[in-house]
């Protein structure tokens, strides 16, 4: 797994083999998300729109949006709403404004009830229009309107006086009279341009004359994140963290999977691989403690990072593999052929493979040099990988390590090899046990999988562990 690419099949294997754990984590995450939603009261958001007539540049619209959320506007809105202690700084986190297409400023307000959210948006929009008009000098009072009107009247009277003076000029049309009439015409043109500019600056046509486009709509639902969204997000987050944790642990795993790596760690050649029909292991006595029960309840007592067992051939084909391994072992053992089969403690697949090897060694003796048929006398021991200790009270000529690939690290296998060397056992070789999917039919007379066979040559089955 450490060198493999993370693929969808790997994630699917996690979801399939860890469904109990993921289901429990999803429930816990949903409860955490729901509890988080209880810490935050529900929020409701609505929007009021303000229209800005005339031609506006983009930067001017952004400026108006900033004015809508300024402290002056928010302070006035809070004072008008009559909320004690609710100033502009408190409303700043609950009011936002943005410039939209069509010269529209959208002001959004958030509150704990739909009614308050509606009132807040409407009041901020109204205060924004009032404050913006004041900044632009948009004063529509009688005094402000009387000034420009009086000025227009004076310009009209002056224009008439200029016409009278032009008509009363010297009719002889001397040079002086022509110059006078020309200057009066220029003065009249200048006054007309001034009146035109004054009309353009009229408050009725000024850009600051903003309009609130109706009251804000009362919100019908909560603003995100809602209680349901937090609950679902909590469940998905916990499941995602669990999947990422599994993938990270698999990436960091140092378990050996290939034959060259295993052979190098043990310092012995791999004599072959044998097939073991995969089945759910029976509960062992050491798994009856509370921790073991919790592991079975969560479904983590079975590894997820091993590939799905491939389909195996028939029983006869599997027995051929065992007989070939036994033949290689006989070739490496001196007479008398006594063998210590070492199995890592907790490796259920390897333990069943060792049982099959013992059965084949007993049922298929080979002829010795004297012409008599002899078999390999075996003894099976399970060795703890944490503190490996191999018993040395036997007369075996060598040791055979049986293990499953992808279950042990190089340090653990090196410890088993050192334990064999300390007990003065020479490693004859290594056998890899591979789980496969067996066919329903079984060959008659063959011992069932997982059965503990009688040891060949009359030796009693013994286990040793340290």
Write a structural description.
The chain is of the alpha/beta class and 466 residues long. The chain has four domains: 8-40 and 224-252, no CATH class; 44-135, Alpha-Beta Plaits; 142-205; 259-458, 3-Layer(aba) Sandwich (Rossmann fold). Helices cover 48% and strands 15% of the residues. It has 14 helices and twelve strands. The chain has helices spanning 8-17, 19-39, 58-68, 71-81, 88-92, 114-135, 142-167, 175-200, 227-252, 259-266, 290-298, 315-332, 348-363, 410-422; strands at 44-51, 95-100, 104-111, 211-212, 270-277, 310-311, 338-344, 366-367, 373-374, 377-383, 398-404, 427-437. The strands form three sheets. Strands 5, 6, 7, 10, 11 and 12 form a six-stranded parallel β-sheet that branches. It has a four-stranded antiparallel β-sheet with strand order 2-3-1-4. Strands 8-9 form a two-stranded antiparallel ribbon. The longest helix is centred in the N-terminal third of the chain and has 26 residues, at 142-167. It is rod-shaped, with a radius of gyration of 47 Å.
């Amino acid at each position: 797994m450490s060198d493999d690419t993370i693929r969808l099949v790997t994630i699917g294997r996690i979801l399939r083999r860890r469904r109990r754990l993921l289901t429990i984590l999803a429930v816990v995450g949903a409860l955490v998300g729901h509890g988080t939603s209880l810490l935050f009261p529900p929020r409701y958001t609505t929007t009021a729109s303000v229209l800005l007539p005339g031609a506006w540049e983009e930067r001017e619209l952004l400026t108006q949006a900033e004015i809508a959320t300024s402290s002056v506007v928010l302070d006035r809105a809070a004072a008008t709403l009559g909320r004690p202690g609710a100033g502009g700084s408190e409303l700043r986190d609950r009011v936002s404004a943005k410039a939209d297409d069509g010269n529209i400023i959208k002001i959004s307000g958030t509150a704990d009830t739909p009614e308050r959210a509606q009132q807040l948006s409407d009041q901020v929009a109204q205060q924004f229009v009032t404050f913006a008009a004041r900044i632009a000098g948009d004063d529509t009072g009688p005094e402000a309107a009387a000034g420009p009107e009086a000025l227009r009247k004076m310009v009209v009277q002056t224009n008439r006086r200029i016409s009278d003076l032009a008509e009363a000029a010297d009719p002889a049309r001397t040079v002086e009279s022509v110059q006078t009439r020309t200057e009066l015409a220029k003065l009249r043109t200048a006054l007309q341009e001034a009146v035109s500019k004054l009309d353009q600056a009229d408050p009725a046509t000024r850009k600051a004359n903003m309009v609130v486009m109706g009251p804000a709509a009362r919100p019908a639902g909560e603003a995100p994140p809602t209680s349901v969204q937090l609950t679902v997000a909590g469940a998905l987050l916990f499941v995602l963290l669990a999947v990422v944790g599994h993938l990270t642990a698999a990436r960091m795993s140092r378990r050996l999977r290939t034959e060259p790596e295993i052979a190098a760690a043990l310092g012995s050649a791999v004599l072959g691989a044998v097939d073991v029909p995969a089945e759910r292991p029976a509960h062992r006595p050491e798994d009856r403690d509370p921790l073991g029960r919790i592991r079975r309840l969560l479904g983590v007592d079975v590894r997820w990072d091993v590939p799905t067992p491939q389909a195996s051939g028939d029983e006869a084909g599997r027995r051929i593999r065992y007989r070939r391994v036994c033949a290689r072992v006989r070739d490496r053992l001196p007479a008398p052929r006594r063998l210590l089969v070492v199995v890592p403690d907790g490796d259920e697949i390897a333990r069943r493979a060792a049982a099959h090897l013992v059965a084949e060694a007993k049922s298929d003796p080979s002829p010795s040099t004297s012409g008599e048929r002899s078999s390999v006398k075996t003894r099976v021991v399970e060795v703890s990988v944490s503190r490996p200790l191999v018993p040395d009270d036997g007369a075996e000529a060598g040791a055979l390590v049986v293990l499953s690939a992808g279950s042990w690290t190089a340090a653990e296998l090196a410890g088993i090899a050192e334990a064999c060397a300390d007990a003065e056992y020479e490693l004859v070789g290594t056998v890899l046990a591979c789980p496969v999917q067996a066919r329903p039919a079984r060959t008659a007379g063959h011992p069932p999988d997982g059965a503990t066979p009688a040891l060949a040559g009359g030796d009693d089955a013994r286990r040793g562990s340290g």
